Amino acid sequence: MNNRIQERRRFLEEKGWNDWGIANLAGDASPRKYFRLSSGSKTAVLMDAPIGSCGPLDPFIDISEYLIEQGFSSPKIMAKDITGGFLIIEDLGDDLFSSLLVKQPELEYDIYQVALEILVALRQKVPPPHVPAYTPETQGELSALSLTWYARYISGVEVNEREVNQLRDFVAGAISSLNERQVFIHRDYHAENLLWLPERSDQERVGLIDFQDGSIGQSSYDLVSLLEDARRDISTTLKEDLLYRYSELTGDSLALIKKGVAISGIQRNLRILGVFARLSIRDSKSWYLDYIPRVWDYLMGDLETAGLPDLTSFIMNTLPPPNPENLDKLRSA
């Protein structure tokens, strides 16, 4: 038995949960592991997040408490070991948007409307204290992952630092040009981090998870995360309806919303190209490469909408397209 299993058992025993049944749950892109605890009809979720590989638990705890205080559905913290990297949290069920819509696609319009309304509601809230700013400079830095992981391992050529700096500056400048409200952003607001809770009411009908990287940033960021989901398609009609509804609810110009979504989408999709390549190459999670063509298509659409010819030219000249040959290079890297 490895040390981590022993530590997990010790935590459960110390907190009085050792007589509950335990079963694996699907994880996410991080090293965190999740387990469902059960006792009769009662359930909870054990999060196993070693501090060394996952970072401190405080951001997750603080943001979860903030979201609950603001009237949103986030897992309540039931027991914790900050030093050991363990939490027992409320079980919000299995109805992730991504899996629910495979079974009940007719729910898509309604549940996405509620997810959109949450973003509008979050705009009106005072952001939580001690949450980091997702600055234009940080976003520029992260966009360069597309060069250091995606392009680098397709081309087989060492990264040109001048090009990395150019991309950082292009993206940081584009983000800085947005005159958007700075709000709390989840940073991974998509169908695998949203749970449908129909027994609850209003904005509490969507459960929020995996928000530990939450930051303060431009309001279009989470909107594009919802609309340009790397793991699933939404129809053009639904996307247009959601953008129009967002404009109605916020009073913001539809044209400015679309431009903000495009610019935030460029940054986000550049980052995802690099992150998914890294997950395959470094962490042996090659299935993330299957999502890259969709991300590339989003990027191309965002470049067309954003009206940034210098950045567009730069990307087209430095990033290879994810054709089958190039994806095979990433798989074998």
What do these coordinates show?
There is one protein chain. By secondary structure, the chain is an alpha+beta fold. The chain has two domains: 87 residues, Phosphorylase Kinase, domain 1 (2-Layer Sandwich); 236 residues, Alpha-Beta Complex (Aminoglycoside 3'-phosphotransferase, Chain: A, domain 2), CATH 3.90.1200.10. It is 51% helix and 13% strand. Helix 5 packs parallel to helix 10, helix 6 packs across helix 11 and helix 8 runs antiparallel to helix 13. The relative contact order is 0.12. The model has no long low-confidence stretch (mean pLDDT 96).
Chart the SSEs and their pairings.
Elements: H1 3-14, E1 21-25, E2 33-39, E3 42-48, H2 51-54, H3 58-69, E4 77-81, E5 86-89, H4 97-103, H5 108-123, H6 136-143, H7 145-155, H8 161-176, E6 182-185, E7 194-196, E8 206-208, E9 215-218, H9 220-227, H10 236-250, H11 254-281, H12 292-306, H13 309-318, H14 324-332
Helix pairs in contact: 5-10, 6-8, 6-11, 7-11, 8-13, 9-11, 11-12
Provide a concise account of the structure shown.
With 333 residues, the protein is α+β, with helices and mostly antiparallel strands. It is built from 14 helices and 9 strands. The protein starts with a helix and ends with a helix.
